[in-house]
Specification:
Layout: E1 5-6, E2 9-22, E3 28-39, E4 44-48, E5 54-55, H1 58-68, H2 88-144
The chain binds zinc ion.
The site of zinc ion has 7 residues, from helix 1.
């Protein structure tokens, strides 16, 4: 269950966390298992939908989810005994693989989004440093001329 209080401050709204990455058509992607919690004091934190874990960084919620709530799909055993009207192996494999594929794809998309977010944050840090260095260079040029 998602946290109802964070450090004693009441949660007043729960929103699906937005991915910093958009679809190729520009649509916003929302995570299904990570939420943004709006607290009574106006601040926001991210939370896990499976338990009351919260963190200021979305990436750490992602890590928490894969660490604490990852459930590997249990493959169904196909027993050779009773014959079914449909080929048992085909039904089981098809049913499992769709669920597994969707589950796996969702997990991988979220992991990719997190990786992209880290790259974007890194880029912003370097961009800020480059702009600061450019300003410093311009100031130096101004002093020398
Ligand atoms: Zn959790």
């Amino acid at each position: 269950m998602t946290a109802e209080h964070v450090n004693g401050v009441k949660v007043i709204d729960v929103l699906l966390a937005e991915s910093p990455v958009k679809t190729p058509t520009g649509r916003t992607i929302h995570f299904k298992r990570m939420v943004e919690l709006v607290l009574e004091d106006g601040s926001t934190v991210y939370g896990c939908t499976e338990c009351d874990y919260t963190d200021s960084a979305l990436g750490r919620i992602r890590s928490h989810l894969s660490r604490e709530h990852w459930t590997r799909p249990v493959p169904r055993k196909v027993t050779g005994g009773a014959r079914r009207s449909r080929p048992a192996a085909t039904v089981d494999v098809a049913g499992l693989s769709v669920a597994d594929l969707l589950n796996s794809a969702a997990t991988q998309i979220e992991a990719l989004n997190d990786a992209l977010q880290r790259v974007a944050e890194d880029r912003n840090t370097w961009k800020a440093r480059a702009l600061k260095a450019e300003r410093a260079m311009a100031k130096l040029k101004g002093l020398l001329s």
